[in-house]
Amino acid sequence: MFQDNLKELDIVLNEEQLKQFETYYEFLIEYNKITNLTAITDKKEVYYKHFFDSLSLTTSLDFNQIKNMCDIGAGAGFPSIPIKIVYPHLEVTIVDSLGKRIKFLEQLSEKLNLSNINLVHERAEIFALTHLNSFDLVSARAVGHLALILELGIPMVKPKGYFIAPKGSNYKEELNDSKNALKVLKTELIKENTFSLPYDFGFRSNLVFVKKQNVNGYPRPYAQINKNRL
Ligand SMILES: C[S@@+](CC[C@H](N)C(=O)[O-])C[C@H]1O[C@@H](n2cnc3c(N)ncnc32)[C@H](O)[C@@H]1O
């Protein structure tokens, strides 16, 4: 059962939070019939591949010490909305380039009674330019190669703040290909939290980085990022 499995993550949900996850699931499935949000619709799979997987980030850092978080390309809200349900004190900013996903998130936030949440329809590389050094934590799940998401996200992280990249089984290769990005962005890998989702739903690795100091000139315009990855 979801509640029992969450003990692995040191999470105990109260009645209200359990209901929020139920509402999240129901609204996601309903909205998914008219707008493409997720290919995963089976209830157990949504609870583990989306909710549990998102919440797994919380074992990597002490989230009580995190005040604000930016989630790049959250799509249907992963990983930041499940985290926000469990840590309501967090100020969450979601930046997604697809307006229909932001519209879904606006309605979802209302249904879940979430406050202190900013939903921005914008490309991250544009949004970042006006939000440099602003967040305690930035994350991006399933948005692209590690070097790409580091370039989009690290400029927004406060110096000494964190970036978490949830990755799959090819994480070592991506890390290897991101050595230059880490050097240029003055960022260091501090943890590799590897685990398997319950019920054999897959292998995951949450890569935790710390930004050592401010860095100027990033992110570059998207055409440049795409043409010449760091
Ligand atoms: C595959 S979905 C992943 C959604 C969610 N993070 C998850 O794990 O289920 C990628 C999302 O990133 C958004 N995206 C891709 N590139 C982006 C960019 N440069 N800036 C903002 N959002 C972006 C897309 O619109 C999409 O919603």
Automatic annotation (TrEMBL):
Its main location: cytoplasm. It comes from the Bacteria. SUPFAM superfamilies: S-adenosyl-L-methionine-dependent methyltransferases. Its EC number is 2.1.1.-. Keywords: Cytoplasm, Methyltransferase, rRNA processing, S-adenosyl-L-methionine, Transferase. Belongs to the methyltransferase superfamily. RNA methyltransferase RsmG family. This is Ribosomal RNA small subunit methyltransferase G. It comes from Alteracholeplasma palmae (strain ATCC 49389 / J233).
